[in-house]
Amino acid sequence: MKKIVVNEEACIGCGACVSIDPEHFEFNDEGLSHAKNNDNLDSADLASAISSCPTSAISIEDVEE
Questions:
Q1: Domain tally for the chain?
Q2: Domain range holding 46?
Q3: From residue 4, how far is each of 12, 25, 29, 44 by CA, in Å?
Q4: Residue 21 phi/psi, 5° resolution?
């Protein structure tokens, strides 16, 4: 299964991903981004949010359930 992963150590909370793709991202209590769902991973907005991250903190990874 594929999943959106946000590296919280790399995230600076700039909000680019939240602004570009609110379907997939929101801020957590620490003001950092986190993925709120893993649906529609082929979305153009998701691809744009990933490529716009200034610290390359976002990836889509295969994870075992």
A1: 1
A2: 2-62
A3: 17, 10, 19, 14
A4: -140, 75
